[in-house]
Amino acid sequence: MRLEHQTSSSAQRARATGSPIPPPAADVVRIIPLGGVEEIGRNMTAVEVGNDIYILDCGFQFKEEETPGIDYILPNTGYLEERRDKIRGMFISHGHLDHIGGIPYVSDRIGNPTIYTRKLTGLMIKKRQEEFAGNAPVNIREVEKDESIKLGNHTIRFFGVTHTVPDSMGIIIETAWGDVVYTGDIKLDTENGVPTEEEFREFEVFRNRKVLCLLMDSTNVWQPGFSIPERTVYATLERIIHDSHGRLIIAMFASHLERLIRVVHFAEKFGKKVVIDGRSMRTNIEIAREIGLIKYKDDTVVAVENMASYPPEKLLILATGAQGDEFASLARIGNKSHKHIRLQPTDTIVLSSSVIPGNERAVQKLKDNLSRQGAHIITYYASDVHASGHGNREEAAWIHKQVKPKFFVPQHGYHYMLRVHADLAAEMGVPPQNIVIPDNGSVVEIVKGEKIVKTAHKAPSELRVVEGLTVSEISDVLMRDRKALGQEGFCVVVATVDRRSGRLHKSPDIISRGFVYLRDNKDLMDQTRLIIRKSVEQSMRNPRSADLDAAREDLADSVARFLLQRTMKRPIVIPVIVSV
Predict the structure, then answer these.
(1) Would you say 78 and 44 are in contact if contact means Cβ atoms under 8 Å apart?
(2) In this structure, how many other beta carbons lie within 10 angstroms of the beta carbon of residue 384?
(3) What do you get for the CA distance between the two ends of the chain, in Å?
(4) Distance between CA 126 and CA 108 in Å, rounded?
């Protein structure tokens, strides 16, 4: 896949008129979230100290209602592109797409910096990079969680964190005024609300460290108490697999690798065959097997086309699509378009994931389709079949106690989530004046290790998206037009005008898509033609001096105003005036 990069003229004009951001003073630590602090996804933060820039994560976000017609939303890396000579490295906390998905799209734009990460994450990045054959190869340097490296004028250290994918790590950037600590996505492994000994060991690294600023995941801090430990989910899934007397289908994120590994282990333990139905899931299992995270007999995993060779009670299907993804395995099973799998009343389906905000309707439709075929469905509402990879309030409070930061900048979440996390940090002893809640592109500076400010400057934050093979910045006007097309439809009105008399040569043509069905609205269309005739002939009363552009604009305004009065709808009106 070869990517094309485009920048909209409106974004270029905005950048040209904005005042340039000066380099940070020698006594300043600059922190710029480039994505991930106004949404869930596209996590990316730049930390700039002197002549060194360190990049933390590089994810993307899936499209949402506000961005119809696009594939992914990227962090805006305009700030980094202008300072690529200062970039010392990109540090990736773990292998989820909201932290690695942007790499193929932005790496070459910022000079292809070396990527520092753990082994599993590095393999996931390399595997994904194979889909982008036209890109320059990425340079990955594997690190260990207790390793330290010198880059530029600063030392970078790492520590292990708990998440839903193995090899997740936090990052420590040492500065003259103390550490900048970045957790990535994080939760705690707990037993009865008490962190395990391993968590205490990992956070022991902060016992004698001076932490200048903490940058921390805020996704679930608004939820009280502790999140469900992953071991509880494992125990639930093990019981379900053991007790199932029919075919079992378990759907989850392909990136929940730790859980995938456990499910395959339980299936083999109880003598079941595993069908892995989903390319991303197969890829991740292969990566885990390659580095020894998972071991199973060669005949444990069977091809989907060979399922009929085994009794239903001996089959466990791992499927993608628990979020209602239209083309994923589970959706095809639900709408009966799957080539090999047809549901039976004896089947049990486990949806081992929570519903991502915005996907509620798609997931409900999926459950309805599956239920109509008689299958029994188990969700996280009724059973502990899913645990979030993001810690709740009490977990965040415990982490704050261990790290003891002087300053705090919440990350990863909608503004409300960041605000709740900021309030918690204040409760844990961080003075309110030492907390900054950023937006994407905010330029946050810690001056002399004594004061934190959100400056008047702002890094480029225009919406940067992937559409097919193109990476571009898109304007609000374009998104507004796309939403209007989807909600109100459009009308093309065609007027053929005699160039000598300025009168219509024939009755105007009207083409409607997504607005009204023409055959059922003959009176409306006849009246619209009268409006078209009146507008055009008024504009073209002096044909030789007529301004066609102005005539088209007047025609669009007249028709749009009339249709709004008659239908209370606002279709996009496309005027065409042909002179003959």
Answers:
(1) no
(2) 15
(3) 46
(4) 15
The single residue listed with the structure tokens 């002197």 is: 50
In degrees and rounded to multiples of 5, residue 322 shows phi and psi of -70, -10
β-bridge partners, 275: 317
- The Cα–Cα gap between 182 and 174 comes to 11
Nearest CA to 278 out of 312, 244, 325, 238 is that of 325
489-579 has which CATH code?
3.10.20.580
Q: Is the CB of residue 305 less than 8 Å from the CB of residue 332? A: no
Residue 350 CB neighbours (<10 A): 27
Question: In Å, how far from its chain's centre is CA 229?
Answer: 24
Pick the closest to residue 32 from 19, 21, 16, 18 (CA basis).
Answer: 21
DSSP 8-class letter at 419: H
Separation CA 284–CA 271 (nearest Å):
23
Residues annotated as part of the active site: 217, 390
Query: CA nearest 31: which of 47, 55, 52?
Result: 47
Supply the pLDDT for residue 486.
77
Which residues make Cβ contacts (< 8 Å) with residue 533, sequence separation at least 6? Answer: 495, 504, 508
Contact between 278 and 252 under an 8 Å Cβ cutoff? The reply is: no
Burial readout 272-292 (b: 16 or more C-beta within 10 A, e: otherwise): bbbbbbbeebebbbebbeeee
**DSSP label at 19?**
P
- pLDDT tens digits along 191-235: 888 999 999 999 999 999 999 999 999 999 999 999 999 889 999
> Token pair for residue 227?
């999140």
In the prediction, which pLDDT does 136 show? 84
Domain 230-378 has CATH 3.40.50.10710: yes
Domains 4-10+23-225+388-476 and 489-579 share a fold: no
Q: What residue ranges of the chain have pLDDT lower than 50?
A: 7-17
Question: Under a CB-based contact definition with an 8 Å cutoff, are residues 159 and 170 in contact?
Answer: yes
Q: What is the spatial distance between Cα 516 and Cα 518, in angstroms, rounded to a whole number?
A: 6
pTM score? 0.85
Q: Are 511 and 532 in contact (CB under 8 A)?
A: no
Q: Are strands 407-411 and 376-378 parallel, antiparallel or unpaired?
A: unpaired
* Residue 531 to residue 561: CA distance in whole angstroms: 10
Q: Where are the domains of the chain?
A: 4-10+23-225+388-476, 230-378, 489-579
> How many other C-beta atoms lie within 10 A of the C-beta of residue 61?
22
Q: What pLDDT is stored for residue 169 in this prediction?
A: 96
What type of residue sits at position 533?
R
Find the radius of gyration of the CA atoms of the chain. 28
What does the pLDDT look like over 276-304, one tens digit per residue?
988 888 888 888 888 888 888 888 999 99
Give the separation between CA 218 and CA 367, rounded to whole angstroms. Answer: 30
247, two tokens:
């075919």
Check residue 3 and give its pLDDT: 62
Report whether 168 contacts 94 (CB < 8 A): yes
- The architecture that CATH gives domain 4-10+23-225+388-476 is 4-Layer Sandwich (3.60)
* Angstrom distance (rounded) from CA 63 to CA 65: 7
Please spell the DSSP secondary structure of 198-267, one letter per residue: HHHHHHGGGTT--EEEEEEE-TTTTS-S-PPPHHHHHHHHHHHHHH--S-EEEE--TT-HHHHHHHHHHH
